[in-house]
Every structure is written in structure tokens, then in C-alpha cells.
Protein 1
Amino acid sequence: MAVSLAALVVTAFWVMLPAYVPNNAAVLAGGGRPIDGGRTWDGRRILGDGKTWRGTAAGTLAGMVLAVVLNVLEPSVSGLVGIDLPTFPLAAGFGLALGAMLGDIGASFLKRRSGRERGAAFPGLDQLDFVVGALVFAFVAAPAWFTATFTLPVLVVVLVMTPILHVVTNVGAYLLGLKNEPW
Ligand code: CTP
Ligand code: K
Ligand code: MG
């Protein structure tokens, strides 16, 4: 039981890596022209200055490159941890990475509609927006891979583990001075 839970956690973390990296890469690469071009809707920004073309492109690319790197490392890592970890078809890496970015952008849209300024916290949404986006887009982009990879136990572990990891990495990025807010 203990062994299989550890295997589930390792598998869940591995398959979600191409979705975890994009938002962090966007923080490092962000800046430049906002996606909404500064436009407003009902007096509020459509998305805000925190969602840029450069950050979105860099984040998506980073997630896809990571998926390719993980494919190369898979035999060694699988041998090391004693689990047959999945590899990532290009469509799967693309779906996970772009989906993570679009989930986060969708959340900013909802934050602006509910009157929250750029950087405001939206507990719950902040921790899960990119997971939901990544899962939906991975399913659409690579359905056979998705259903074979995201078994129900893996999905449950992803949904429990991701918010915890999100809090830890964002507090870390804040303490390192990379982010303006610790969420
Ligand atoms: N970022 C970006 N493009 C994205 C996502 C993030 O350029 N698609 C960069 C921005 O510099 C952003 C930073 O990463 O400020 C932190 O991301 P996030 O916390 O998602 O944005 P916020 O600035 O907090 O804005 P929002 O309230 O809309 O989430
Ligand atoms: K966010
Ligand atoms: Mg933020």
C-alpha cells in the first residue's frame, strides 16, 4: 500500500511536470505586450497586464521542451524509481503546456470580472486553474494517451498534490524575489 501510494505520487508528479513548468517559466519570461492589448470590458481590464504574449509563448514552449527532455530521460528515471513511467507524445506535451497557460489566463479573466485587480488572490482558483486547463487540453489533444495515463487514482493524487505544490513553489518564488505576491 505504502509502495503503491509512493508510485502514484511519483507518476502523478512526472506526468504533470509539462503542466507545472509553464506558469513558472512565464513568471521569468513575462513582460511586454499584454494579450488584451490594454482593452477593458465594463470598465475593467479583460485580462490585465499579468498575461502577456511573451510569458504565454515562453511558458508553453518551456512545457513542450520539458516533455521532450522527459522522453529522453524516461528509461533512466523509470529504472531509477522502479516504475514504468509514461512518455509524452508531442500532442500530449502541447496540450498539458498550453492548457496550463490557458487555464491561468481563464482565471485572470474571471478575477477581472469579479473586480479583483492584477495580483489579487482568488483562493482555490489560483491553485487549480492551470491543472484543470492542462487536463482538459491534454484530453482533447491526446485522448488515447490521456485515458491510459490519467487513471482515476493518478487524477485524484494530481488534484490533491497540485494545490500543495503550488503554494510551496509560489511562496518560494516570492521569497526569492521572483514574484510580487506569495500566491
Ligand atoms: N505572466 C505572463 N504571461 C502569462 C502568465 C504570467 O507574462 N500568461 C507573468 C507576468 O509577468 C505576471 C507573472 O508572470 O505578472 C505572474 O503570473 P500570475 O501570478 O499568473 O499573474 P498576476 O500578475 O498575478 O496577474 P493575475 O491577477 O491576472 O493572475
Ligand atoms: K495565476
Ligand atoms: Mg499572481
Protein 2
Amino acid sequence: MKFILLGAPGAGKGTQAQFLTKQFDIPQISTGDMLRAAIKAGTPMGKMAKEFMDAGKLVTDEIIIGLVKDRIAEPDCKNGFLLDGFPRTVPQADALAEAGVAIDAVVEIAVPDTEIVNRMSGRRAHLASGRTYHVVYNPPKVEGKDDETGEDLVQRDDDKPDVVLGRLEVYHKQTAPLIDYYQAVAAKDASVKYLKVDGTQKIDQVETAILDGLKA
Ligand code: AP5
Ligand code: ZN
């Protein structure tokens, strides 16, 4: 199973990915998590990416495409993978198609902008694993600590309200065109499923909607 999770910042891609990767036993490929790991490791790419990310802007297609191509060539991706946060621009989607990657499904998690701002302000993240929580909607067992490691949770630098609004603007301009793009792909190619789910439901209801939709 190879599929793409599409949705605005804060739509719940990472949250659903945690569950879906277990369900299908495939790796999660989150370009955001990979970039945050590069920043933490202090690599030259990480240093460059940090400026874009802190400003809520997209990192260049060239860097991202190289990163994803290398990752999907790894052995654990043989039986499939879940792309979270990639592709995010039309050139990235074109690069994926040109690389001959046959996607089985594109899952759009739809959430209106007003709800997104709420979610970002309450998000807490465990940076090492990419696990995310929400102080109200999905609290950790112990306040401020990751459920699995007990390590500290942090607020992401790009979750400050002014940056969130900029990220939403970037999403509408550069990523939302992929909704039409992949609907057109699915209309032409019966082996590709396009599934839109209502991401304003409770986390477990979104999970069920995705699983049922993929099975249907
Ligand atoms: P990235 O890390 O991909 O961020 P994003 O797409 O903006 O998405 P988020 O991680 O913010 O949200 P999410 O949908 O995963 O939501 P989550 O599950 O955490 O990218 C960060 C940056 O990296 C970009 O801005 C860019 O600079 C760069 N980048 C990354 N990929 C790139 C690419 N391909 N090209 C160029 N640049 C790239 O949920 C959010 C919150 O809501 C959590 O607190 C969660 O607990 C809560 N929540 C989730 N679901 C629900 C629900 N159903 N009900 C209530 N609360 C919920
Ligand atoms: Zn995420």
C-alpha cells in the first residue's frame, strides 16, 4: 500500500499516520519530521531548512524531492509507505509521478482554517519520534511528557499564531491545487483511489472513516 495524506497544516496528517502505519505495517515518510531531524542534527540542509520552516514557507522543491527519492529507495519501503506532507506542490507531485511511483490512494483530510488555528495552539510534539498530542483533544497520559518514552513534549517553533496564518496561506496557494491534481489522476486511472474525509470529527472517527473508505 502506497498512499498520500493530503491536508492543511494541523489537519491531522501526523496523528492519523501514527495509526495507519501500524495498521498497514508500512513506514511513515513525513518530510516535516525529516527536516526537523536534520535541524536537530545540525546538518547543512537542516540549517537551510530552518529559515524557511520558522517563517512558515516551503523548503525548495529540489531539496525535498531529493530527500524523498532517497528515502523511498530504502528497503523498508518495498511493501509500501505513507507520505505525510509530501507532495506539497505541483512540481513535487510531478517528480513523484516521473519517478514511476505508483500511488494506490490519496486521502484528503479536510478541516476549515478556523479549526486549524485552535489545533496548532494546543499541539505538543515529541520531536524525536514525531508523535503529536493536543492539550485538550489528545492529551498525553502525563502532562508535558511523551507516552512511550516519558521525554519532554515541546511546542513547535512554527506553531506561533502569526506563523500558522502564513502557513495556511502557503497551503492554499501552493498545496491545495493538488486536490484537483489528484482527483484528475484518480478519474483517469482506476488503480488510484481519491478519498476525502471530514477531518473535524473526533480522532478515532477520522481513523474509521479512512479505513472504511480505503476498503470500499
Ligand atoms: P509539516 O511538519 O509537514 O507540517 P504541516 O503540513 O504544516 O502539518 P502539521 O504537522 O503542522 O500538521 P498535521 O496535519 O500533521 O497535524 P497533526 O496530526 O500534528 O511541515 C513543516 C514545515 O516543513 C513546512 O511548513 C515547510 O517549511 C517544511 N516542509 C515539510 N514538507 C515539505 C515539502 N514537501 N515541501 C516543502 N517544504 C516542506 O495535528 C495537529 C494538532 O491537532 C495536534 O495537536 C493533534 O493532536 C490535533 N488533532 C489531530 N486530529 C484531530 C482531531 N480529529 N480532532 C481534534 N484534534 C486533532
Ligand atoms: Zn505533521
